[in-house]
Amino acid sequence: MHDNHHDSTDEPTEPTAVTTDARKRRSRPDGGDGSGAGGADGAGGSGGDGSDGGGGNGSGGDDGDDGDDGNGDGDDSMRPGDMMLAHPTKETWVQYAVISLGAWLVATAPAFGYESAPVFWNSVVSGLVLIALAGATIYYENGYANYANGFVGLWLVFAPIAFSAPTAAAYANSGLVGTMVITFSVLIVMRSEMDGPTVPPGWSYNPSTGAQRAPLIALGVFGFFASWYMAAFQLGYIESVWDPIYGSGTEQILTSRISEAFPVSDAGLGAVAYSIEALMGFMGDRRRWRTMPWMVAFFGVVVIPLGFVQVLLVIMQPIMVGTWCTLCLLSAFGMLWMIALTVDEVVAMGQYVVRLMRRGDSLWTAFWMGGTIPEEEAGVDETSTRPIGDSPVSEPFWGVSIPWTLLGAMALGAWLMLSPTVFGTTGLMADSSHLAGALIVSFTVIATGEPARAVRFLNVPLAGWLIAAPWLLAGVPTIAAINAAVAGLLVAILSVPRGPITDRYGGWERYATLETIDRLNPLSS
């Protein structure tokens, strides 16, 4: 609500969720209950343009800057981080759901016959902690207690793996309750729409829409169930694992020395990671690239570097164990597409954090609290440049394009992975083809994400190795040597052209394409 002075002028009075000027941010998590008095320009106290939702009884000065300490208009004047702390205290019904889940854990511990004292007491203690923290959220209106329950939920997802739960009931019960706790204490209370623009400055689309996240969630759910199934075998709940292509290959990998070197089930760890990725895909609204930088950053870490480590472990299977695993390959291939689909949102978040820091915020404040931008600085709304009728099909894949050159490189990488079987190659040459082919597929899939298009250049040294390997390794059949050399040459040629960049990324294009190199590259288009 604006005061009379502002209503009588021609100055724009469009409300902004939060100022981007760090000097004017003084909001409290509770939005302020004081009653400030407006100054000469009406920006103080109860909500002129200078009000930032702060608490106390401040009174505005001549230019309204002191309105930061006046009466805040609730959540409309809070920074996103403050709003997320306030939400749990306003939606108390979710706390009663968490209390019910805590009671369920306590009650089912003796009923399910867990056959393990650590698993039994973990269920009881975790249930009591959930009840206590949910009660603190209701009684003391403490948002931190609510989010602490989110960490309890995360622990419940991991606990059956940590304790090697002896029964499937213990595994399923703890994992399901943990997921529901995270849903109630984190996802639901963070679902509220924030104010302000949705498209990052200089971008042609919003990388945080629900449609953009849908394939990430779907791939995460698939990876979770695949890993959960394999973990059930490792933990002894089932006696065999179905593999339609490699027969007993999956079982050999799950019982190999590499898998047994982990202190807990490695497939179970994968299930935990995939569940986190899927749940984080649901977190926040379509503005989360600027309202939740911390969450987008953590999501990026789980998907990009940690996801690629998982891919590398799968790539090493034929070298370390001597066989492949169908479910592992499918999960790894899905993870590569998750990386390609995630890069754009991480880039948008990073650009926004840098923007806030240039305007005076500390890295800590910008990272944890987020903010907004003026409407006039936002990027072009996607609905004004995209056919609305195409959105359900095309929107999930904005920011990803597959030029025929990358598609060809991907096919050659897959062929190299199969070639040792086709030509009967063994030893180091077979390992070379497996490793180089899988890495070429990996780098090429990631490069389909336009903000990561420069990753394609990593294929060039791999191609050089493929050409040189037959001369450096002993006992290579002639046909295998010719195959490797020709494939390497073609991969190098196909990896040089950039391919079309169909969207705008706020200036990131010059990094995504290595613009300086592309200027000198006659094959770039």
Q: How would you describe this structure to a colleague?
A:
This is Vitamin K epoxide reductase. Residues 32-61 have a biased composition (Gly residues). Keywords: Disulfide bond, Membrane, Oxidoreductase, Quinone, Redox-active center, Transmembrane, Transmembrane helix. Residues 93-185, 409-495 form the SPW repeat-containing integral membrane domain. The chain crosses the membrane at residues 93-113, 119-140, 147-165, 171-190, 216-238, 294-315, 321-343, 428-447, 479-496. The model is unreliable at 1-76 (pLDDT under 50). The protein has four domains: 1-78, no CATH class; 85-192; 197-382, de novo design (two linked rop proteins) (Up-down Bundle); 404-519. The longest helix is centred in the middle third of the chain and has 33 residues, at 326-358. The chain is mainly alpha-helical. It starts with a helix and ends in a 6-residue tail after the last helix. Helices cover 59% and strands 0% of the residues. The radius of gyration is 27 Å and the shape is flat. It has helices spanning 4-7, 80-90, 93-111, 117-139, 143-162, 168-188, 210-234, 249-254, 257-260, 266-282, 288-291, 293-303, 305-315, 317-320, 326-358, 363-369, 382-385, 391-394, 404-423, 427-447, 459-472, 478-495, 509-512, 515-519. The protein has 24 helices and no strands.
